[in-house]
Amino acid sequence: MKQPLFLQGTLHEKIWGGNRLGTVFNYELNSDKTGEYWAISAHGNGVSQILNGRFEGMGLDQLYHLEPALFGYPKSKVFPLLIKILDANDWLSVQVHPDDAYALAHEDELGKTECWYVLEADEGAEIIYGHTAKTKEDLKEMIMTGQWDELLTRVSVKAGDFFYVPSGTMHAIGRGILILETQQSSDTTYRVYDFDRPDKSGQLRELHLKESIDVLTLAEPKNSQPVDLKVGDLMSTLLVSNEFFTVYKWEVKGQASFTQTAPYYLMSVIEGEGDLLIDNDTYSLKKGDHFILPNHVASWEFSGDLTLIVSYSND
Ligand code: ZN
Does the first or last residue of the chain, that is N or C, have fewer Cβ atoms within 10 Å of its Cβ? Predict the structure, then answer.
């Protein structure tokens, strides 16, 4: 099947969500507290559906199991990655995710290493990225006594920034930030601190202090150093590559040809519009489109003025 698999994702209401997924990406929202769009996902909490071709209407989870050839006969039993767009109209909880070993033992799913490409950020927007404790004892003490100002490391962000967030990293996305997240397919979050705010039923959301202290690492997070490569009309930026995934930003202004080097690709158009050419077929692309290039697509071309976030699994 030499066709891209266009996907319809799922929207998720959150206490910190807003309406930017509607205003910026034209997704049809049914809540003004829409926090997440799970764009490319086979996770049970929000499965993307195929929009075109012979597999139209099928869930990505089912397709991954029924048609392994499309994914190059992958090793991973579950579709390993998840692409989300998040609209933080307010702070997300301060949180941490387990690694694979801890998550498989305690949650029966993958761990969660993630990374963020900042699509938009209000003036003065910040994230929490790491903490100041040097020992587990200090960490525990500062969490238990709520010394948040001393413990949590704040970093200013602007559009175009990129952050690598390995499992075990203390983190929170701050108010006024729209990001595209590439992550392992997992939905396990341990909440350390939630700003003491109630949800819509007046309840505080659950915290997971024991699990958080178990999995938080002491080392300061090391962000990746993006590497730019200009080839003709393409500016390719390698954002991060690790044991789980490789993520690029591709900016095309004109025309650019590609040859496959990974079994399959996950692609999200974050800006502009243009065409995707595969053999003699043309598919039009616009901001907010998400698709997979399956294994049978050995080469392709983009034309137009568009920016994509592209990833593949290293499983
Ligand atoms: Zn997270």
Answer: N
pLDDT in 10s for each residue of the chain, 315 residues: 799 999 999 999 999 999 999 999 999 999 999 999 999 999 999 999 999 999 999 999 999 999 999 999 999 999 999 999 999 999 999 999 999 999 999 999 999 999 999 999 999 999 999 999 999 999 999 999 999 999 999 999 999 999 999 999 999 999 999 999 999 999 999 999 999 998 888 999 999 999 999 999 998 999 999 999 999 999 999 999 999 999 999 999 999 999 999 999 999 999 999 999 999 999 999 999 999 999 999 999 999 999 999 999 998
Q: Rounded to the nearest whole angstrom, what is the distance from the C-alpha of residue 299 to the centroid of ligand 1?
A: 34
Q: Which residues pair with 235 in a beta bridge?
A: 230, 251
Where does 227-313 sit in CATH, by number? 2.60.120.10
What residue ranges do the domains of the chain occupy? Answer: 5-215, 227-313
Please check whether the two domains, 5-215 and 227-313, share a CATH topology. Answer: yes
Residue type, 104: L
> Rounded to the nearest 10 degrees, how much is the dihedral formed by the CA atoms of 300, 301, 306, 309?
30
| Catalytic residue numbers, as ranges | 191
Q: How far is the CA of 169 from the centre of ligand 1 (A)?
A: 9
Record the pTM: 0.96
> What residue has token string 């075109």?
52
Q: How far is the CA of 172 from the centre of ligand 1 (A)?
A: 7
Residue 98 to residues 50, 177, 235, 241, 277, Cα–Cα distance (Å): 30, 24, 34, 19, 40
Rounded distance, CA 250 to CA 312, Å? Answer: 14
For ligand 1, the distance from its centroid to the CA atom of residue 13, given in whole angstroms, is 16
Q: Which CATH architecture has domain 5-215?
A: Sandwich (2.60)
Q: CA–CA distance from 123 to each of 128, 158, 163 (Å)?
A: 16, 8, 18
